[in-house]
Amino acid sequence: MSKYKKDFHTALLDIPHAAKTFLLSIIQYFEQDSTTIVHYTLTGGGELRLAVAPPAESSKTRKRNFATLYWQSRNRVVFTRLYLTPSELAQLDFHSASVPKRAAEPLLSEIRLSEIDLRDDSHKFVTVLEQSKRKMLAIF
Q: Where are the domains of the chain?
């Protein structure tokens, strides 16, 4: 297990059950998907990143994140950035997304998922992540 993955899983011990279950279900789902690279950083105290690698025939060479997620303890939300626009998220019934404040941010939206969202919409959010991945794959 990588140090970042270990640190991320250690950080999960101190977050609410709904958030932990949500993040672990995302990890489990995408670790079984051969087109997704699940990786971790120490950003925000431990961040889950979901990426795709370019297809072999692509001239691009580096993986690209289509989503980042972490528990934001101060606001008690899972803070997520995605490669979908806020209007695309609204079409998928996630209306609280906004454009990232940092102009250089490569991901196109930010959304904060409360503990209620995590319990009620976790399965629906996997669909959102899949849409974000498909959109990212289309740029290669």
A: 3-137
Work out the burial of residue 98: count CB atoms within 10 Å of its CB; fewer than 13 is exposed, 13-18 middle, 19 or more buried. exposed
Residue 52, both tokens: 């795709």
pTM over 0.85: yes
Residue 59 burial by Cβ neighbours in a 10 Å radius (0-12, 13-18, 19+): exposed
Residue 82: how many other CB atoms lie within 10 Å: 29
Indicate left, alpha or beta for 67 from its phi (over 0: left) and psi (-120 to 50: alpha).
beta
In angstroms, how far is CA 129 from the centroid of its own chain? 7
Contact predicate 126/26, CB 8 Å: yes
From the list 50, 108, 110, the residue with the least C-alpha distance to 79 is: 110
Residue with tokens 């789902």: 29
pLDDT of 1 reads 65
Domain 3-137 has CATH 1.10.3470: no
**79 contacts 114 by C-beta, under 8 angstroms:** no
| pLDDT for res 120 | 85
